[in-house]
Amino acid sequence: METSDPGNPNLLVSLQGEDYSYALEVGLGTIEVNTRPCEDLFCIERIMHSAVRPLVHAALRLGWRVLAYGIQPVSEPSLRIMSPKQRYQSLYRAMGAEWLWYTVTAADQIQIDVSRDEALSMLNFGNLMAPVIIALCANSPVYGGKLSQFCSGREGEMALIHANEHRHGMPATPYTSIADYVMRSAMVQHLILRSDGEVVPSSRSFAEEVRDTGPDMDKFLFHEHYIWNSARLRVAYGTLEVRPACQQPWDSQMAASALGLGLIESADSIMAYVRETLGATYWEDMRFYHRRAIAQGLAAPEPAPDFLVSIAGLANLGLQKRGRGEERFLQPIRERLLRRHNPAQWMRRIYRTRGIDAVISNATIRPATIPASS
Q1: What pLDDT band is residue 373 in, cutting at 50, 70 and 90?
Q2: Which of 27, 107, 237, 280 has the fewest CB atoms within 10 Å, i.e. the most exposed one?
Q3: pTM for the whole structure
């Protein structure tokens, strides 16, 4: 099924099938691939193979490439490459040049089923794990044709967006209740709103909007969708969305999803380990590590000796307890820890020794690397 943009009926923005869908992202060179809900990681892997294969072949016919990389390596953020969707145009009017970073970035996100009773604890835990995920999964150090100061360029640049609102990355402090989460979300700028059938920019906080128009749950969820913390509750699906991983190299395409799922499965034991190891200042310590991991990846000093090895081991146990053999997808994570190199650090080496063309070549997904449908 094809879907067009409500504000631009001639613009095709998505293709929806039974197992997966494609959506036009903020940048014209970025396609979002979504799978249907799956019971295990093997199901996601099979569907992703089926979804990526036609993309790669279609790109080849046009002389293009599909990259497994976290940011456009050459194209700089610009209005020229922004998809002409109505809401994107309104977000640009609300945010200016900051919004254009979304035209060049690509994430590897997983949504994990959570219950109402555990929503708050999983939201806080998911955000607390952001530096762990970034240290292990950063993959966007080269962009604009140059080597940047960040291992995770997408997280490093976006952390600067409305930084005083803590709108991206880790929140300033953990949430104390769902009410606290709603109130803090309401205090940030209400970037865009629906008005008379259109999506228009706004310059007020959501709380100010509510004072004039009254409470509206649908309006809040639309507002909250444009708060980009590392973990978000997705009310429409009953899930926690884990967001900070860059798009992974194709030969380890399931690593970020496996890590995210393993962390959530072992949340209680990992949380106990973090509190015991870091003490009362655990959140502040992790926020400090977050900044270091964005810049240095696995070269960043860890909050405690063997910190990442311990957490990755607990994540592995979480997958083992599911009894489905999914822990095999953590093998790239184990190798990265052993070598103390994540994909970004490897890309930095490639750029320094062989240049931007080698970066593009290394990130390219080739047809022969995509297994045939099972």
Answers
A1: low
A2: 280
A3: 0.96
Structure tokens belonging to residue 64: 């293009």
Note whether residue 284 is domain-resident: yes
Per-residue pLDDT band at 236 (split at 50, 70, 90): confident
pLDDT tops 90 at residue 374: no
Which backbone phi and psi does 152 adopt, to 5 degrees? -105, 90
Give tens-digit pLDDT for 98-135: 999 999 999 999 999 999 999 999 999 999 999 999 99
Can you tell me the mean pLDDT for 303-332?
98
Query: H-helix or E-strand containing 5?
Result: strand 2-5
Tokens for 170, please give them.
């880790």
- Report the SS3 class of residue 301: coil
| Cα 244 to Cα 239: distance, rounded to the nearest angstrom | 16
CA distance 58 to 31: 13
Residues 61, 71: contact at Cβ < 8 Å? Answer: no
Question: Domain count of the chain?
Answer: 1
Q: Is residue 12 part of a domain?
A: no
Any long-range contacts for 208-214 (C-beta under 8 Å, 24+ apart)? 210/186
- Mean pLDDT, the chain, rounded, equals 95
Residue 152 · residue 344 · CB < 8 Å: yes
pLDDT of amino acid 163: 81
Task: Give the domain CATH number at 306.
Answer: 3.30.590.20
Whether 123 and 133 have beta carbons less than 8 Å apart is answered as no
Task: Say how many C-beta atoms besides its own lie within 10 A of residue 41's C-beta.
Answer: 23
Q: Does residue 332 belong to any structural domain of this protein?
A: yes
Q: Which residue range(s) make up the domain with 250?
A: 37-71+106-188+227-369
The residues, ordered by sequence, that sit 6+ positions from 190 with a Cβ below 8 Å of its Cβ are: 202, 204, 205, 206, 208, 209, 223
- Helix, strand or coil for residue 43? helix
pLDDT at 11: 81
Cα(228)–Cα(105) distance, integer angstroms = 13
Distance CA 299, CA 281 (A): 22
Within a domain: 110: yes
